[in-house]
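Page header: ASSEMBLY MODEL / two components / 692 residues total.
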Amino acid sequence: MHALIDVKHPAVAKIGVVLIAVALAVLPFALVGIGTAWVRITNLAILYVLLSLGLNIVVGFAGLLDLGYIAFYAVGAYTYALLASPHFGLHWPFWVILPIGALVACFFGVLLGTPTLKLRGDYLAIVTLGFGEIVRIFLNNLSLPVNITNGAQGIAGIDPFRFGTFSFATTQRVAGVTFSGPVKYYYLLLIIVLVVIVINLRLQDSRIGRAWEAIREDEIAARAMGINTRNMKLLAFAMGASFGGVAGGMFSAIQGFISPESFVLVESVNILAMVVLGGMGNIWGVILGALLLSFVPEVLRYTVGPVQQSLFGRTLIDPEVIRMLLFGITLVAMMLFRPAGILPSALRKRELESGRTT
Amino acid sequence: MDIFLQQLVNGLTLGSVYAIVALGYTMVYGIIQLINFAHGEVVMIGAMVSLSVINALVGAHVGWPPLAIVLCGGVIAIPVCMGVGYALERVAYRPLRRAPRLAPLITAIGLSIVLQHVALIIWTRNPLAFPQIIDVVSYHVTSNPDGARITNVQVAIIGISIAMMGGLVALIYRTKLGIAMRATSQSQEIAGLMGIDINRVIALTFAIGAGLAAVAGVMVGTYYGIATYQMGFILGLKAFSAAVLGGIGNIGGAMLGGLLLGIIEALGAGYVGDLTNLCQLSSWSTAIAERCASDPNLTLFGSNYQDVFAFFVLIGVLVFRPSGLLGERVSDRA
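Prediction written out in full:
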């Protein structure tokens, strides 16, 4: 946890951790004060943190450029939706489906990884992009002749998470405090994201993490050092994909409705941008990138319209268009001026400063 | 057989458009080994500009012949696209020529998002329609009166494409600029030592590719009769697949790949429905037979899967023959 709370004295560090924990615990109640929508936005932001941490394994750790990551999110989301909605009349409990979703996404990760083992750089990017589009086209069209995905209409009425009679979707009062659905999801997501962060931190310094780093730096040298590059690359795809699958399942349950529209290419680019903006390979950087790219557009959504109203008397340009324009400009500016991200990992920084490596 | 010929004609038409766009990818790749991800958006800008000009001219009742109006649209779209192509090179590629590959890839994605949304602001979400000014005449390909047909628009698209490819080959192999381009693609340092202005040559390569894209945009707009701000992405991706199929960096490969991909797509879309028609299995299962009685077109995969073919071709080529049909091995370069 060095980057955020790297303070020398252990007592200071302890106080810091406690302060952050308290802040995270009361955050939803502060947000409810501004508007319930902001709790939902925070939940989505945490989902994006999960997704970018998953993609960071593939892109940041192993150096495999993946532009179709959203496909795994889609696979997880659809797995949950099909097994817990009126569409097939199945209502399995979430703790059964989430692991299944992770496994199915993992399978798709290996399915994508196996044929692309030899590819690197922008070729891999384009093949993964094609894979993402193929998954989306199939989701869009697998309503005929047998209706599996319900096509472009998507699947509605997806079950929320439930433990027996305890549902995450309803509002409850416990000891005089109101816990609304989104607030309950917030705590669940927070726990999951903390677990995932710990897994990532442990992974990074493990044998596997070091093997990935070696592959990223020089694949041939890594193989010469006795690393099974094939298995390691497949493992990166599989692990990244499983995180995506879990996040997808949670997305399904929180939204209650999914359609192929949610899994377009721009979403993959968005997640990649989070990873790159924050600092590829640096877990704290990636989290920061995900939070920034989730919250700033929402703030824009609420400010761009009114600002235009007051300046010109009407909304000249759709806030969504402005959001995308700024997103594109950010991508370009970031690559031109700070290619290693806001919080660069030490290695990445060195690499980018020394110029092209091959 | 007639259906086959008809799909072949359609495929050739589409394929020559892909080939023209693929040339833009392959030229840039050949010279700086980077994939110009925003190239598809240049095609879109070309289509939008030319359709706007054509609509304006038709709306103004200038009374010119339809051909002159379309030409005028193209003539205005070409410099606009060349400007965009040049700007792309200056903003996204020149400063990053020595950076790791990820950087230009991401700037290009960023720029294509910017271009798309600038187009969305200028031309709105509604598609631009091509006005009904050209009399589409169709000719028989065979003696069979109900057989395959080819329209004058298709003939024009194929003809213009062939002419442009010929012109490009002449430019690359017969002119000083072409020699400079080929020298730059071999080694930028040595070419620089020989007195070639590398930056100028690379910028011109982008501009020429963008000029070709503009013409492709006009052709797509004319052929489909419609253009939207979103059309560039999928078209660019297919053209890129075509370039990879032919062997990226190889001019002849891009042409071959484009034509092949067009034909594969047209034949695929034409036949996949018939091939996966489940009614052929009626004898196997009564459930299928019952559904086929009410719906004889019970297919597993219909023509709505058309866009998938290009991706499968792309993945297949990169997996089994990464060098493409005519190219050298490149895909494992980082």
